[in-house]
Amino acid sequence: MSFRRRRAATVAAVIALPLLLAGPVAASPPHPAPGQDGGVSDELLVIGHRGASGYRPEHTLASYELAARMGADFIEPDVVSTSDGVLVARHENEISGTTDVADRAEFADRRATKTIDGAQLTGWFTEDFTLEELRTLRAVERLPDVREENTLYDGLFQVPTLDEVLELRARLSRELGRDIGVYIETKHPTYFDGIGLSLEEPLREDLRQAHLDRPRSPVFVQSFETANLRELAEGGIRVPLVQLLSATGAPYDLVAAGDPRTYADLVTPAGLAGIAEYAAGIGPDKNLVIPRNPDGTLGEATALVDDAHAVDLLVHPYTFRNENTFLPADLREGTAPDDYGRAIEEQLRFWEAGVDGIFTDNPDTGVVSRQLFVESGEQAAA
Ligand code: G3P
Ligand code: CA
């Protein structure tokens, strides 16, 4: 089974399809992106968002490993820094929501209030812990009300370093016989620059040591900010970069520099052309690709995918999740927020809209929706 992009039949037709067809399909023009074999590829990607965070506490080695075993092409570590400059995998530098730090009496005096990207936060921050100290903490489920099953694993796993994630990637690639990619996001780069813990230098060094700093390495580097990506590109980083795009607000580096541009400006054709100067793709909030109607149902696709493809940018929207609470109103099943709804149907709408990959907390669901989409195209072409 090859998972290249091609136009599919309607969602209704797709859902009626049996999983019978296999074999090669016609490829669309390639993009400058790493594929499963480490080379330029137009493969449709399933990206394990924070690993398989629908099933394990996010950003743990267990979460990443499960994602790879479920068929994810890429695993996605977000990275922040410790006080001694080591990159670790956390969605944010404030760690009370994803570790047991608040229960650790020995770290009670580390509780602090800080301003991060213009917002005041109180809690415990990775930059106030050495790696050795951080390693004594244990990960917990971020969403215990929605993902009660995941709390089974609370307290079992450490906060991994990026180095460890890259080592896991190498081991699983050997074992599974396919190149597992890493899709690394630097979090709060302007903030970390400001406290003397710049993320980009250790990132480049970690990639170099893992022999993943090459044009054909299965790596993307992503950020919601712009200046750090531009600097990486100008500094000659050889792996593709992805500009993340929020549905609201503005990149914090632009805010800090007094630049009035917002994400809404970046998703215009002119904004996308500017992104294409330094990036290989965009990672938009999925609502920028297919917004929801006022009643919460899934609406119609915007021009974003076509506009991005017109300037050779890949489109990898985030974040697809199985639970009702995250789904459009018309794709929910029942009323329990944590029950699964018709997530596959949602994802098929996005594949049909032409996206090149999806970030999902449930990589197994992403693999199924991609397979259905590709098979629908094969059947339509037969
Ligand atoms: O990086 C894609 C997606 O992960 C962006 O959202 O907040 O989950 O990092 P976030
Ligand atoms: Ca991310």
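The pocket of calcium ion (ligand 2) is lined by residues 76, 78, 185 (CB under 6 Å).
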